[in-house]
Amino acid sequence: MSANLILKASTIITMDPAKPRAEAVAFDTATGVITAVGSFDEVQKLAPDAKVQDLGALVLMPGFIDPHSHPLNGGMVTQPPAYWISPYIKDEKTGTYPYSTFDQVKAFWAKLDSQLPNGQAVVCNGLDRLLQGAPELTNKDLDACFPSGRPVVILDNSGHEVYFNSTVIKGNPTVFPNGIPVEDPPGARYGRYTKDDVAKDPTLTVGASNGRAYETAAVLNAVGYVLHATIPDPLHSAALWYQLMAKNGITMTSEHTYQTEMLPYYLALSSVPDSPLRLGLYHMSIEADCGEKVPVPNLESRLWKQGIKLWADGSPWVGNIAASFPYLDNEKVRAAGIPLGPGGTDNLNYTRVELDQILDKYTPLGWQFAFHCNGDIALDVVLDAYQRALANHGLLGTDHRWRVEHCGGCRGDQFARAADLGVMVSLPPFQFIYWGDLLDGTMFTPEIGRQWVRAGDAMKTRAPVSFHNDGCVSPPKPLLNIQSMVTRRTPSGTLHGPEQAVSLHDALMAHTMHAAHHLRRDHDLGSITVGKLADFVELTNDPYVVDIEKLANEVAVNGTWSNGKRVDLAAFLDQIAKYPAIEAKPRARAAAFKRCC
C-alpha cells in the first residue's frame, strides 16, 4: 500500500517493543493505514512521493485509549444545561475549584435559584459527601436550598444515589403516589422517612419519600422525567464530552452502559468526518436485548459492540461495596452517612445463582463480559462465577478477554488469579487521585487505604492492565492517571503506598496497547506499527524526559489524529450541529445515569 503523507517529529514513541522510537511515520490518508515507521531517511525512501509534514519539536505517540467510559451519559449530566459540581472541577478562567466544599455548593445553588427563570429545572452532577462534607440530603434539605420550588435533581458523585426536592416528588405521581414510593425495583430502592425521622419532625410521614433513590432502577424511575425535559439536545451534550476527551489526547474509548436507544446518537457521533473517537459498546445486562448484535453499517472500525456490562457491587464513596473490611469510625465517615460495615455479600447486586444464569445465557453468543467490582468480596464472587462459566463452556485457556473493572479495594492475589483465568483488569487511577488522601487513614485503615488501586500488584502478573476514568465520575485525563500511578502521589503531594508504583512504560502501556487489548483492537491500534491505523496524539514534551512528578503539567496535548487525519474539533462540533435531528431522545431514565465507581 502506498503512503501519501509522512509525519516527522522530534521523536516518535511507538509503544512497539520491536521499534520503540522513530523519527517519522508514513501512512495512507485514505485508508489510515501506516506503511512505514523509522528514521526519516528510511521512511522517505519507502514513500518517496509522500508529502512531508514536520511537527517540529512535538512528540508523537499512539492516541491514548480510555477503555471504560460513558460519553453520552457523561455529556448529558456534566455539560450545559446541566452543572458539573464535583469538588475537583476547575474553573479554567479563575484557576480555582469553585465546588470544593458544601458551603460553596450551597452558595452556588442560591445563586442559581435567584437567577434562573421561575420553574426552570436544575440538574447537578457530582455532589460528594466525603470530599465536600455534604450530608446525605433529603427533599426538605433541597426545598430549603431552592425556595423558588423549581424541580431540582442532584446526582451523587458515585452515580449510585440521587437527591431531589418535593417538586420532583409531586411531579412524578406514578412513582410517588401521594408522596409514597411504589414498591422498590429489583436491586434498587427508594428512600423513605422512618419512625425515627417522624419523631424528630412530626410534619413528616412514615414511609413517605425522603427525596433519595439508590441504584440504577430506582434512580432512573424517580428523576428520569426531569432529565428528559431538561437536557434538550443529548447529541450536542455528548459531542462536548467527545471534545473534552479528544483535548486530553484520547482517540478511542467505550460506552459501558449502552442500550439500544443510544444507537442513533453514537451513529451520528461516529459518522461525521471529523469524529475524534472510536468507540466500543458494552450493552447493559439489565436490557432484554443485551445479547443481540448492533448494526453499524460501514462504521465497524469506528463503532462496534464489544460486550456485556454487569455490576457486582456499588461505590466506596457511599458505602455499598462488597468488601471484607469496615470503614473507620470517625466524624467524616459518619457525617457522610456511610455505614461502617463491612458490607460483605449483603452489598452484592446479584446472587451467585443469578450470576451463573446470566453467564450461561450469554457466553455461547461470544460476547466479552465486563464486570464492575470495587470490593474484594465482589471480585472473589465474580472470579468464582467466571471460572465456572469458562470451564463449563470450554473457554479456559482461550483468548476470551473477559474483564473486571475498577477493583480499587481488591487484593494482589486476586489479580494473580484473574491473570491465570485470562481475565483482564482495568484500574481506576482517579479513585486514588481524588480520594487517596481520605482513603488512607480516614475511610479505611492505612493497610487498606494506602494500597487502594494496587497497580503494582496488577502489573506484576504481566497480564495486560489498563487504566480508565469512568466517564463523568472524573475528568478524562490520561496524563494525570499515568503520573499518579508512577509516583503514587495525590495532588496534595502526599505519598500513599509506594510499593504499588509502576514504571512509566507500564503506565503508558495501560493507556495505549493494553487498553487496545482490552477492547480487542490491539491488532490495528494501540501502537505506531506498520499495518495499524494512524491514530496519534501530539505531545508538547517527551514523557520519558520530563520530571515524572510534574508530568501532567509539563506535557500537554497539542492535538490528535484519527485514521490518518488530524482531528478538527471545531469542525466536529459544527458537523454535529448540522446533523439531522434525532427524533427520539435516549430514555432519560437510562441514558443519563449509570452505576459507576
Description of the structure:
- A hairpin with a 2-residue loop joins strand 21 and strand 22.
- Strands 1, 2, 3, 4, 5, 20, 21 and 22 form an eight-stranded mixed beta sheet that branches. An eight-stranded parallel beta sheet has the order 6-13-14-15-16-17-18-19, sandwiched between helices.
- The protein is built from 23 helices and 22 strands.
- 32% of the residues lie in helices and 20% in strands.
- The protein folds into three domains: 53 residues, Urease, subunit C, domain 1, CATH 2.30.40.10; 148 residues, Diaminopimelate Epimerase, Chain A, domain 1 (Roll), CATH 3.10.310; 271 residues, TIM Barrel.
- The longest helix has 17 residues.
- Helix 15 crosses helix 18.
- The chain is α/β, with parallel strands linked by helices.
- The C terminus is likely disordered.
- The radius of gyration is 24 Å and the shape is globular.
Provide tags for this entry.
single chain, 597 residues, alpha/beta, Urease, subunit C, domain 1, Diaminopimelate Epimerase, Chain A, domain 1, TIM Barrel, 8-stranded mixed sheet, 8-stranded parallel sheet, 22 strands, disordered C terminus
Task: Give a quick precis of the structure.
By secondary structure, the chain is α/β, with parallel strands linked by helices. The chain has 23 helices and 22 strands.
